[in-house]
Amino acid sequence: MNNSAVQPNRFRLTPMRPRDPGEDSRAASSLELFFDLVFVIAVSIAASNLHDTVTAGHLGDGLGKYLMIFFAIWWAWMNFTWFATSFDTDDWLYRVMTIVQMGGVLILAAGIGPVFADENFLILVLGYVLMRVVMIAQWLRAARHAGKARAATLTYACGIGIVQVLWVAWMSIDDPAISLAGFLILVLAEVAIPVIAEARGTTPWHPEHITERYGCFTIIVLGESMLASANAVFGAFEDSDDLVSLVSLGILSLLVTASMWWIYFWPPHHRAIGSFGGSLTYGYGHYVIFAAAGAFSAGVGIEVDSQLGNSALDPVLATFTVSVPVAVFVLGVWLLAIRANAGGVVNTVIPVCAVLVLCDPIIPVPTFLTTFFMIIIVITLIVATPKGDETSTATEVEA
Hints:
CATH class of the largest domain: Mainly Alpha
Largest sheet: none
Order of helices and strands: HHHHHHHHHHHHHH
Radius of gyration: 22 Å
Oligomer: single chain
Shape: globular
Distance between the termini: 37 Å
CATH architecture of the largest domain: Up-down Bundle
């Protein structure tokens, strides 16, 4: 049932009933897109801190903190996104609560710097907990009119509440090893909540809407990567006389980013979430895709610093900071969305080229091999057609 067709009550609130998963022309709302923009601020700050830490020569430390922080960003975004596909009412209370969550994102973003600087998680955890507490209120509101999904909504609310108390307690741990173990345990607890909740009563999701939401976030993250890459190259013009190398790196970075976009949007993503198991795989697997896209921009900045001699990182490792995120991104998209919708040629070219991207450091032109193999993948996709689309393509040609 479309909540927009339900009459609001005297408080001008629309009953939060489950949305129809087969609703026609369901698309991302302007509020959802606005929500995504705030999250990209956090992604940008995380990538910037990753760049600074790795350039200083602390590759392992920077990568570990980036992945921890990115979990908080991705998990909070994903939970809101799947909730919205099931219960979005777009009334004033829903909007206000969403904007409060956006405030939590900004608090989280403000806490990213202290995590990288001195492992102070206080501000970041407070911002994360604020977002999650608002989600508890959203789930409790949905429970009033959820019908068969009521047990699931209450399980979500209770599970989120318990884990948030544990996150606050986690901050009091001083021992690094115990702290890391506790973090991993709490991550497992967070990702287990949907599994447990959906087993008690499935909430409806709209395949086309949810995959559009993932696509929109991918575009925004890739746009952030392009902006960060451009700023890194443009900012280096004043410090280097070798403009040819910098311009070449800028052009190659643009081609790689465009290829990442092309690869992501080639397959019909909505086919991947027909079942609950497929939805979990698709939803959780995007952590790798989003994190890799965010890290790509940091890699370009690291490569620029390496060319200028401003990096403590080995030049070979600097090149890998570009090629590894690209390879991870491509393999992630292939596994989640392309493999089941492609023929033998595509399913051979993509993984092989993704692995060959890692050969980039063997030649002196940074990112050249990465760009070359990405273009090979794009050409292959231009020639190929996703499974199930052959008939419609043939009909269009005949017409």
